[in-house]
Write a structure and sequence with these properties.
The protein folds into two domains: 55 residues, no CATH class; 121 residues, no CATH class. The chain is 26% helix and 26% strand. α2 crosses α4. The radius of gyration is 20 Å and the shape is globular. The N and C termini lie far apart (44 Å). This is IS5 family transposase. One of its GO terms (molecular function) is transposase activity.
Length: 201
């Protein structure tokens, strides 16, 4: 389980975390391995464990438990949320066990580049930078359609990039008492933001 945490915290792939356990004694000690005695799990074992967690829906439950503990200890303030999404590209030839293209993966265009895969939509505590919500969709799902799923319900402010323009007008966000701070298209880097105060209707 601790190896899984290292992967999440440091963004390590299965091969990278295996290598890190050999190269960084502190990480090996953290996961409870004595490199002189214990066998380090290889990348395929780590992959199988991660898939087991996903198959049984344990990843989401682990995230909820960690977030509850962080909140109880005052490390997650919950007054603001940053929402964003990132593409998780897969080779376009990716097939599932039945030899078909995975129906959960789709093609999408970002800029002038085409991608095939999925998208991770993430809600992050604005004060601490800790992730509190993750939603996975096909790559072609628009960011703005998932914003409501990334809120925990206690925030007063939500910050987003230009991909969330119009979020305050969407039906699923009606009645939320949230101030949406959304970057304007083409000017986010200059710090130009729009602000839509969303009050209960």
């Amino acid at each position: 389980m601790r190896i899984y945490f290292l992967q999440q915290w440091f963004g390590l792939s299965d091969p990278a975390v295996e290598e890190a356990l050999y190269d960084t004694p502190l990480l090996a000690r953290f996961v409870g391995l004595d490199l002189g005695v214990d066998v380090v799990p290889d990348e395929s074992t780590i992959l199988r464990f991660r898939h087991l967690l996903e198959q049984h829906g344990l990843s989401a439950r682990i995230l909820e438990t960690v977030n509850r503990i962080l909140t109880e200890r005052g490390l997650m303030l919950k007054s603001g949320t940053i929402v964003d999404a990132t593409l998780i590209a897969a080779p376009s030839s990716t097939k599932n066990a039945s030899g078909q293209r995975d129906p959960e993966m789709h093609q999408t265009k970002k800029g002038n580049q085409w991608y095939f895969g999925m998208k991770a939509h993430v809600g992050v505590d604005a004060a601490s930078g800790l992730v509190h919500t993750v939603v996975a969709t096909a790559a072609n799902v628009a960011d703005v359609t998932q914003a409501h799923r990334l809120l925990h319900g206690q925030e007063t402010d939500v910050f987003a990039d230009a991909g969330y323009q119009g979020v305050d007008k969407r039906a699923e966000n009606q009645g939320k008492q949230v101030a949406w701070h959304v970057a304007m298209r083409g000017r986010a880097s200059a710090g130009h933001w729009t602000r839509a105060l969303f009050l209960a209707r």
